[in-house]
Amino acid sequence: MNAPSLDETGPREVRLAAAAFNKMQRRLRAFVEDRTRMLAAVSHDLRTPLTRMRLRAEFVDDDGVREKMLEDLGEMESMIGATLAFARDEAAQETLEPLDLNLLLSRAAEDYRDAGKPVGFSPAPGPVRVVGRRTALKRAFTNVVENALKYGVSADVAVAVQGETVAVSVTDQGPGIPEAEWDNVFRPFYRLEASRSRDTGGTGLGLSVANDVVRAHGGEIRLENRVEGGLKVILHLPLEAAR
Length: 243
Ligand code: ADP
Hints:
The protein is α+β, with helices and mostly antiparallel strands. It has six helices and seven strands. The strands form two sheets. It has a five-stranded mixed beta sheet with strand order 2-4-5-7-6. It has a two-stranded antiparallel ribbon with strand order 1-3. Helix 4 (134-152) runs antiparallel to helix 6. The protein is globular and about 75 Å long. 23% of the residues are buried. It binds adenosine-5'-diphosphate. Residues 143, 147-148, 151-152, 172, 174-177, 185, 190-192, 195, 202-208, 231 line the site of adenosine-5'-diphosphate. It is a multi-pass membrane protein. Keywords: ATP-binding, Cell inner membrane, Cell membrane, Kinase, Membrane, Nucleotide-binding, Phosphoprotein, Transferase, Transmembrane, Transmembrane helix, Two-component regulatory system. One of its GO terms (cellular component) is plasma membrane.
């Protein structure tokens, strides 16, 4: 029996790969469009009552109460600003491209180190090929690293290939997240009480955005509290070869 010629196998594989690519492209585009529209509409609609509240707050006699109200309103306005900025950025960036995750993430880790931030990086051997949206994937990664730096002092990033997926883990030395909160922290604007009371300057959007991006690429994020303390956030993504 002859080995199949390139004419029999090559084009078929190319066709299958192209079909999978197009399907993912369509899925991502629909996801981005839906969410962008929703985020823009909600942020816009929230601004109107907030402006009215700001005007009314100016009439509160008690100075302490008035200041606190204005502070809270300022916080809400900045969250809305961040949401709108995110929606605009998403709309502008939606091309899928083949990427080497080792390279993309090592550069991002290097940028942190150049800025004097403690971010370690161990790559997987060889290139780690995925197909995705560069800016969105980098954002998912940096959101998780920013959290490790904010809540857990330092970030150790490791890339590992596991069968048909790549696992990018970000480990820190902080307090971790109680297991009962694991679902909650992926909800938009959700923050643990301890983070609200400490001034960490977050919006509660970081993990929900990271999760949305990873899911839109056909992956998922998992959490682990380490026995020795600290949180491990693992971003799982399908390798290009698996699609
Ligand atoms: P934020 O802008 O508040 O950091 P995120 O969505 O990124 O929002 O995270 C949600 C909440 O999850 C945070 O407010 C914090 O309470 C908790 N969290 C996230 N990452 C970590 C971490 N590495 N260690 C401990 N707690 C974390």
